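JOB MANIFEST
job_type = single_chain_structure
chain_count = 1
residues = 414
[input]
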Amino acid sequence: MRSYRSVPLLLTLLVFLPVFAQSDAEAPESPLLERAITQTEDGVTITVAVPSDTETRELFGVPLYKRKIQPVWLEIANDRETPITFLPLGLDPEYFTPIESAFLGAGSASEADTNMRKLFFDRRINLFIDPGEKRTGFMFTRLQEGTKSFNVDVYTDDERIVNFTFFVPVPGLRLDHQDVDWDNLYPEDQIRDLDKDALIEALTAMPCCTTDKQSEGSGDPLNLVVIGAVDDVYYAFLRAGWDETEVISRSSLTKMAKAFVTRSEYRYSPVSGLYVFGRPQDVALQKARENIDERNHLRLWMSPLRFEGVPVWVGQISRDIGVRLTAKTITTHKVDPDVDETREYLVENLAYSQALAKLGYVDGVGEATIDAPRANLTGDPYFTDGKRVVLWISSQPKNFGDIEDLDWGAQPIR
């Protein structure tokens, strides 16, 4: 949970913010507003919507997405008896100003004429909202395609911050998990709700590794178990900085090839299909680094198991440290052999993002030493202590010190 120990100082700083004319930007037309999401708390109502690349071009006349700029439309309604202040740094600490966005969108300051600058400036969101008033307008943020996650923070007269968290689908990318029918993955008679001992036994007995489409071969180790509802798991990873993954298509392959040639980042790069339960991963997530060669990535499959009514997911996580083009699979990433390091990275990542309630470890992968490693389906060697980490996702922010560490008798080699 974010700390606001300097709220009195913040109140002082707000005095020096520029006071813009209290005019409202014209509300964009549907279908953008048809996708709007609204939340209300403590007398403040926030409505947000995020235009796609195409809609952004129509609204502003320039390719902002190409410049890595993404407008966010906001409507802030103040039903309190005192003024409130919108804090833009809570939404994006590296946001772009309206006129800066006009310059960058046009390609240069000289090409952003007076009318364009005025268009952007007039469509901004005002910071100050008087009692009973409503303000609408855009903020210009760093680009996040797929599902955009952000906070909207509002400062009140009693020196408090009202915080809203949004997860907003943005049209444009075809994501690998969009077509999954979560409610009908398994027949009702296959779903098993287990107690703790039965859960440990079932997780230990699961296959060690992924397979190919024919359920043959031994691929990457299934070193990850996640327990959480679909939305809780999804939002926890987004909050922790993970990106979604595009399906393999002509468009995504073109972007992948371009990133490979230019040694650039591709945040939503497709992930090849590995198989568990006779099907490819239900969802793949990744953390891209400076170029397409390097990323952390994971795959998750919802299992037929439940614990206290909550879905149990089995998964695989590894770190890519290189890539090569192949005729068979288009691209193949080389995996860091120390797969346990990446497993522990995820534990810390979710803990620091306050998404982790408790964790434990079970056997099931099987040990492989650095001197006698195993290999995955593409021939990359890996070594492991043979443990699976079991992570309970918290739907509410969980302080680092409050995470419960379960001793299930299968502690990892540290």
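[summary]
Confidence is low (pLDDT under 50) at residues 1-22.
Residues 339-352 form the longest helix (14 residues).
exit_status = 0
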